Amino acid sequence: MTKLFFEGGPAFMGILTLVLLVIFTLAVANAIYLLSGKSYDPLIMKSRLGYIKSTGLFGLIIGILGQLIGLYQAFSAIQQMGEVSPAMLAGGLKVSMISSMYGFLIFIIAYLLWFGLEALAVRNKAVEV
């Protein structure tokens, strides 16, 4: 796992990991708030839960941006070298996809957390359907 982290580029993978931590923090804070039994405004709760989904989408966009920058750097290196083997090109494409796959995984996690918390909020009548 550490190998993938450093192959994907520590800068983008670090940012994506921070985004994932923010998502978990938001999810835990909202879950505690929902399970506390306090009364709350449904519109505010719906907005607070929407932050989880939005942050996950931000992670996906950062991952795609990391891939695009990696592809640009790989193509610049290929241009300077002139000729490159197909195996080297495939390896570069594989490495460039690591950050976008991590961003997509973060988006899926955020969406599942949002879905579960939204269901909990509807069950607790904190959010109107």
Task: Explain this structure.
The structure is a single chain. By secondary structure, the chain is mainly alpha-helical. It has one domain (2-123). Helix content is 85%, strand content 0%. The chain has helices at 2-7, 10-35, 42-81, 86-123. The longest helix has 40 residues, at 42-81. The model has no long low-confidence stretch (mean pLDDT 90).
Identify the notable features of this structure and list them briefly.
129 residues, mainly alpha, 4 helices, 85% helix
Topology overview:
Layout: H1 2-7, H2 10-35, H3 42-81, H4 86-123
Helix pairs in contact: 2-3, 2-4, 3-4
> What class do helices, strands and sheet pairing give?
mainly alpha
Number of domains: 1
Summarize the amount of helix as a percent range: over 70%
**Rg estimate, integer Å:** 19 Å
What's the average pLDDT?
Answer: 90
- Report low-confidence residues grouped into runs of 5 or more: none
Number of helices: 4
Regarding quaternary structure, what we see is single chain
* Gross morphology: rod-shaped
The overall strand count is 0
Major sheet attributes: none
Order of helices and strands: HHHH
Tell me the β content. under 5%
Pfam families: MotA_ExbB (PF01618)
Family: Belongs to the exbB/tolQ family.
Domain MotA/TolQ/ExbB proton channel: 45-113
GO biological process, one term: protein transport
